[in-house]
From TrEMBL:
InterPro entries: Acyl_CoA_acyltransferase (IPR016181), Diverse_Substrate_AcTransf (IPR051016), GNAT_dom (IPR000182)
Family under the similarity heading: Belongs to the acetyltransferase family.
Domain of life where this protein originates: Bacteria
Residue stretches making up the N-acetyltransferase domain: 1-155
Organism, scientific name: Actinomadura craniellae
Signal peptide residue numbers: none
Keyword Ubl conjugation: no
Transmembrane segments: none
Protein name stated in the entry: GNAT family N-acetyltransferase
Coiled coil regions in record: 13-40
Keyword terms of this UniProt record: Acyltransferase, Coiled coil, Transferase
GO MF term (any one): N-acetyltransferase activity
Length: 157
């Protein structure tokens, strides 16, 4: 069963985020708290959304996403920030079902893109995405400002 996450799912979502970060060798980078997720997902004007998939009444995985925009198409799209299914339940179609639900939302709303990033060493995920028909965008690289560099540039404003 796929459904929008509820405020009651927040502790589980945070636990799964931490599991994903551990798998991606970046657990030390997780700073999010339950309060952060509650505020972001369920505050007065949420800018990020989450779906969960259940297995026998418990959350087996989640997809956390937000709406982006393409100036080239003049339309919105979905950016998938995180997709995670617990290791013991992988291969049962839960990840595909979460992605299919987001694709349905995008198509229903007239969005033109559904995008995400994947670590270049995560061969199982890359193979999964290729099987869905996803194509790499090799000519684009992700750029990020954070920490001191972000603050330094902000001071110029």
């Amino acid at each position: 069963m796929i459904r929008y996450a509820t405020v009651e799912d927040v502790p589980t979502i945070l636990r799964l985020i931490r599991e994903l970060a551990e798998y991606e060798r970046a657990l030390h980078e997780v700073r999010a708290t339950e309060d952060d997720l509650r505020r972001s997902l369920f505050g007065p004007e949420p800018k990020v959304f989450a779906h969960v998939v259940e297995h026998e009444g418990t959350v087996a995985g989640f997809a956390l996403w937000f709406v982006n925009y393409s100036t080239w198409t003049g339309r919105h799209g979905i950016y998938l920030e995180d997709l995670y299914v617990t290791p013991e339940l992988r291969g049962k179609g839960y990840g595909r079902a979460l992605l299919a639900e987001l694709a349905r939302i995008a198509a229903e709303r007239g969005y033109t893109r559904f995008e995400w990033a994947v670590l270049d060493w995560n061969e199982p995920a890359i193979g999964f995405y290729r099987a869905l028909g996803a194509l790499p965008q090799d000519e684009w690289t992700v750029q990020r400002l954070s920490g001191a560099a972000l603050r330094a540039l902000a001071e110029e404003a």
